[in-house]
């Protein structure tokens, strides 16, 4: 229990606002970011260990190296002191998109790359201000379009292994784009409601 307490305290100290600060919407975004990192590190082993084993078995060494790199960088985000929280968030989201892109380009549409891209989009909406919400959906759209172009020209190794691969990619990636934009439009409504509630409470306290 003491180990878990020290573990969570260290990450909260680095990744969220210090206790005693104003608990506004920015505070809760940072608190959520710290929570993501706290649970991500131990839980990622569920996917990481089988994923690295499968990648090595299938000779997809780029994916195995990427997995270990992402884990190392997330560990640095959690425990390296003195980095601004915004920089930690940017590095985290870039890593999430990198992992999703590598999985898509090495495994194809049958892998979980698109799931990681959707998760990266949702995490981005959660931890950054609402004005950046659509940026995550636009990023997924660009990735899907560029991947479709790479499929069309046969630049990806797995293209020849799958029948009607371009049609499959269009069908699956269109769902990813749809869900990304839906999340980008709806989730900020929740945060806007939270912000309004916080402001209403402040107004009542100041009366």
Written description of the protein model:
There is one protein chain. The chain has 207 residues and is mostly helical. The chain has eight helices and no strands. The radius of gyration is 19 Å and the shape is flat. α4 (61-79) packs antiparallel against α5. 80% of the residues lie in helices and 0% in strands.
In short:
Helix 2 packs across helix 4 (61-79) and helix 6 runs parallel beside helix 8 (165-206). The protein is 80% helix and 0% strand. The longest helix has 42 residues, at 165-206.
Name a few traits of the molecule.
single chain, mainly alpha, 207 residues, 80% helix
Taking pLDDT < 50 over at least 5 consecutive residues as the criterion, the unreliable ranges are none
> Helical content, roughly?
over 70%
Order of helices and strands: HHHHHHHH
Terminal residue distance: 43 Å
Number of strands: 0
Q: Biggest sheet, in brief?
A: none
From the alpha carbons, calculate the radius of gyration and give it in angstroms.
19 Å
Percentage beta strand: under 5%
Shape: flat
Number of helices: 8
The overall pLDDT average reads 88
How would you classify the helix and strand content by structural class? Answer: mainly alpha
Q: What's the helix and strand layout?
A:
Elements: H1 2-15, H2 25-43, H3 45-57, H4 61-79, H5 85-107, H6 113-127, H7 133-152, H8 165-206
């Amino acid at each position: 229990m003491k180990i878990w307490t020290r573990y969570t305290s260290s990450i909260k100290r680095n990744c969220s606002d210090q206790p005693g600060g104003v608990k506004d919407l920015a505070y809760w975004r940072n608190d959520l970011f710290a929570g993501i990192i706290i649970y991500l590190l131990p839980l990622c082993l569920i996917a990481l260990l089988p994923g690295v084993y499968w990648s090595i078995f299938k000779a997809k060494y780029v994916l195995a190296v990427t997995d270990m790199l992402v884990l190392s960088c997330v560990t640095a985000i959690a425990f390296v002191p003195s980095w601004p929280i915004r920089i930690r968030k940017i590095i985290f989201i870039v890593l999430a998109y990198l992992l999703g892109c590598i999985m898509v380009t090495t495994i194809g549409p049958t892998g979980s790359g698109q799931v990681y891209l959707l998760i990266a989009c949702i995490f981005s909406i959660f931890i950054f201000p609402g004005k950046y919400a659509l940026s995550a959906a636009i990023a997924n759209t660009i990735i899907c379009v560029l991947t479709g172009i790479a499929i069309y020209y046969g630049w990806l190794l797995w293209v020849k292994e799958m029948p009607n691969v371009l049609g499959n990619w269009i069908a699956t990636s269109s769902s990813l784009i749809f869900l990304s934009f839906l999340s980008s439009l709806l989730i900020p409504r929740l945060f806007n409601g939270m912000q309004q509630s916080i402001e209403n409470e402040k107004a009542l306290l100041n009366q």
